[in-house]
Design brief:
single chain; 387 residues; alpha/beta; Aspartate Aminotransferase, domain 2; Aspartate Aminotransferase, domain 1; seven-stranded mixed β-sheet; four-stranded antiparallel β-sheet; 12 helices; 11 strands
């Protein structure tokens, strides 16, 4: 069955029945007999779809778990109230006091902050390694346990060679964890490329409508057993309303990402030709470093792009003048967004650029590309006229 067809039918109950699984809110699950109660508790230890107690999710969450596990190609998937909660849960499941981690230099900032502010208290240390790394040998210590990857890199979209890096990591007995929020299980499947764990902030494209907070962790092998155990022990779960909204959003994931990609590439091409722009960062552009690897390993790109504006361009004034691009955190919803960013200038994508150049991250929403371009043109005209 094609993936597009699966999206339309994930979690559907038997017919006659509703097209979407209903929202089931529950804490206590009642039984008629002690034997039934005990049998249910025993069954849930090996089957996450068993309805046993609200903390383990209701049938609404179970449907979403099965859908994400299939989407990511994992042996299982577990749900959390936010993307950062999913990152924290995966790390706490796989890391022990005194361990050493390797984080790619272009990692999502909140991941590094969690390591600095929480894991460090347990004696867990980390080092950064370059995004272009395929041989981890120079960075591995005796106590190195885990490698964290993210491709494309957060905000600057450096592309990693995951098959090569995973081969190096596994040869050293390391677990590989991927932040797959960019690919969201549709564009990219890190587990198929060799990773052991894949994390998605479903707040973005899985939900797709800027009204859901959730995260997921999919895993395989020993990592799956560890994540599952830690999730249950820590009481992590997702409310049924959020599970319902995420599963409903996934029905249109393929169509939405197709439009996001089209719009982002249109904006990237237009901006790349503007005199106010020094560089456009987008892994779908043929000139982007790592484009060929991303083309090999992924089925497309999403709505994100970062734009480096020439010194003297007042990017805050530009954003204030835009009408269709809202200023706000997150991305992946139907709406277009723009926000100033300040990634480390040491990143490969930013080499050779003047320090005073300003960077804006755009998210191309589902509006018509011509209207988005017209909005950007009007904003740039207003800013340069004032200048």
């Amino acid at each position: 069955m094609k993936r597009e067809t699966k999206l339309c039918h994930y979690g559907q109950p038997s017919r006659p029945g509703p097209a979407n699984p209903p929202v089931v809110r529950a804490s206590t699950i009642l039984h008629d007999t002690v034997a039934s109660y005990r049998a249910t508790k025993a069954a849930r230890e090996t089957d996450d779809s068993v309805l046993s107690y609200g903390r383990r999710g209701t049938t609404t969450a179970h449907a979403l778990m099965e859908a994400i596990a299939d989407l990511e190609g994992g042996e299982g998937a577990w749900l959390y109230p936010t993307g950062v909660a999913a990152i924290a849960a995966a790390l706490m499941a796989l890391v022990r006091p005194g361990d050493h981690l390797l984080l790619v230099e272009t990692i999502f900032g909140a991941t590094r902050t969690y390591c600095d502010k929480v894991l460090a208290e347990f004696g867990v240390s980390y080092d950064l390694y370059p995004a272009a790394t395929t041989d981890l040998t120079p960075y591995i210590r005796d106590n190195t346990r885990l490698v964290f990857v993210e491709t494309p890199g957060s905000q600057t979209y450096e592309v990693m060679d995951l098959p090569a890096l995973c081969a190096s990591a596994h040869a050293a007995g390391l677990v590989v964890v991927a932040d797959n929020t960019y690919g969201s299980g549709w564009l990219c499947q890190p587990l198929a490329l060799g990773c052991d764990v894949s994390i998605i902030a479903g707040t973005k494209y899985l939900g797709g409508h800027a009204d859901v907070m959730m995260g997921s962790v999919s895993a395989r092998g020993e990592a799956a057993a560890l994540v599952r155990k830690a999730t249950h022990l820590s009481g992590q779960s997702l409310a049924p309303d959020e599970a319902y909204a995420t599963l409903r959003g996934m029905r249109t994931l393929a169509l939405r990402l197709e439009r996001h990609e089209q719009n982002a590439l249109a904006l990237a091409a237009w901006l790349d030709a503007r005199p106010e722009v020094l560089r456009v960062l987008h892994p779908g552009l043929p000139g982007h470093p790592g484009h060929e690897i991303w083309k090999r390993d992924a089925s497309g790109s999403n709505g994100l792009l970062s734009v480096v504006f020439a010194p003297g361009i007042d990017t805050e004034a530009l954003l204030d003048n835009l009408q269709l691009f809202g200023v706000g955190s997150s991305w992946g919803g139907f709406e277009s967004l723009a926000m100033p960013i300040a990634p480390e200038r040491s990143r490969p994508s930013l080499q050779g650029l003047p320090e005073e150049a300003q960077i804006v991250r755009f998210h191309a929403g589902l509006e018509h590309a011509e209207d988005l371009i017209a909005d950007l043109e009007a904003g740039l005209t207003a800013v340069t006229a004032k200048g």
